[in-house]
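[[Encoded backbone]]
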Amino acid sequence: MISMIHKAVSLTALLMVSFAAMGQVENIEDQIGKTAETLEPEHDLNDLTEDLEYLIGHPVKLNCVREEDDLAAIPFLTPGQRRDLFDFIRNYGEILSVYELSSIHGFDSLVIQAIKPYISISPPAHSPPVTLKNLALKGHNDLLLRVGQSFPSSLGFLQGDSAKKARPDAFYKGSPQHYYFRYTFNWYDKIRIGIAGEKDPGEQFFRGGQPNGMDFYSIYLNLSNIGILKSLTFGNFRASFGQGLTFGSGLSLFSVPGLSANLPLATGIRPSLGMSEGSYLKGFAIALKIKRAEFSGFVSYHPVDANYPAADSLSKQVQQITSFVTTGYHRSASELAKRNVAKELICGGNFNITLSPSQQFGMKFGVTATWFHLSASLEPQTFPYNLYSFRGRENTNAGFDYQVRYRRIYLSGEVSRSRNAGMAMIAGVCVTPDPAVTLTVVYRNYQPAFQNLLGNAFGQNGMNANEKGIYTAISADLIPRVTLSGYCDLFSFPWLKYRADNPTQGQDFGAIITWLAPGNVTISFRYYQKNSRINESTVTGMIIHRLIPQKTESYRFSIAWTLPESLSMKTQIETKESPGSDVSGTCGYLVCQDMQLNLRKWLTNINFRFALFDIRDYAERIYTCEPDVLYGYSVPGMEGRGIRSCMVLKFGIGKHVDIWLRGGITRYIDRNEVGTGLDMTKGNVRGEFTAQMLLKM
């Protein structure tokens, strides 16, 4: 019997890159899956897809590049490839076709197809004077509307009036529909305006706890590239500096180890319409650039959700919280009670300078400082494993980061210090001895006492603390049309962890080999294994538990081919085994078939997946991206035995209107109830439907 537990994160625009670029795309999908597996199940992965979405919506204009750093936003490229691309632009001038890049050593068809959505060869645009007429006639407007609903209705929507009065927290107060909208206005590269809103299923709409309609709004006004003003943003934004150790908001594709031989790079400050209600910045941000020096500063202030013991009896204000609530759900009475109970103030800045004494040598240095303040003191319940966790109302962090390039050797790193004198550091080297070979080594040492709620550096932990490790990754073209990528991460935790009553260590390694066979066929095989140690069992009253090995092993084989008339097919088989699971001797299996058909009529695209799964334990869950609407993603946690299918239809109505219809359904053969708690549904079938419209003006 075939199996899978499915937790999918999807960005349709990424999947449209074409199966011809399957090697690079599969690595990104693997990275998303690894991130979902490493983080807590309820963690919002919106930031990952927002990164890719932003890069697609704001491609790098190759003919406007003036410095090598201007190419840092192009994904998939190694530091050596970025340097070769910059030298090509500087030596040969304007690029008329992306296929000119094939003359750069190491830029084969796979690389070009992979980066194509993220680059533009349009000539430099000269913006006219800023007048109301020019803003109205030459601006670009996009309006996206989305509605979705799952079926059948879960227990939280089925309570009768009498049950609601008896148990007011045992039901969802809103409707089961999911609503989302976003509007963006772009005027050349100077002015950007955006507003987005989202209502999750179960949340109210223009009543009760959501009198303003959507439960969460994101809005910004951004001015860019005006003299020394690189960026000025009012509203929602994201910010990351250096390696993200001192400050890095949200998530990134390279937060956890995976099959990538690239060093992560800072993104600076940029406006955001992300829907991650548990981790966002809202306020004011500015970036100034004078020649090779750049200064960035920001202030963020907004309410946060949290768990708290009790409010002050006199002032009714919450003076102490025990933990943050990052799900963003405000559906029931208890979830609404945790909403906006504290205020968060973050101030910070970064100064960096770039020096390039010669063509073969360059360097960049930066300093970052942040101050964090809460209106209520964070006081988590004390356990041995969280002895060093942050407690209190405010914290400061300061760090120094660097990047050095000498020929084809790239060094980067960051050292950071928290207010309590805890230290953390990360250092990496990326070497490209040949355009066909890239080797990366990253060392990290995050002390248990290092405290930073705002960091997002590379590592196995959700927080950058209590971790040491050395990560090695390699990517090489073995022979023409055959590529090998592999990594190995050796890590240790000097202090205790949740579900680990002793210091532990482990290994995480994997490899993927891809063969671009004749006839537009791509074949790949991936192996992945992770070894760690956790408590044997949880026994009431036991202080220290014995540690037992926890091993996860996964194999994946896939074959993709492109047939005539724009038909692409992909078959994938994956197994996953975790002997430390609750069901001994089991192994999860997944077989799925994808089909994508690109048409030139009003029905422009059909994307279909059919999958069979058989998995007996949650520890053996398998992550795989499945098709979704543009800018959409889903994280359905699935386990058991059954069949999963989904289809996405895209319609083009003229030049200004695109419509997507998506439907998915899962049928289980081992249960008559799906889900738990208020999300439980009766029967063995669960499905969802989404409709989306994009107006381009």
Remarks:
- The first strand starts at residue 60 and ends at 61.
- The two ends are 50 Å apart (CA to CA).
- Residues 1-25 have pLDDT under 50 and may be disordered.
- The longest helix spans residues 22-38.
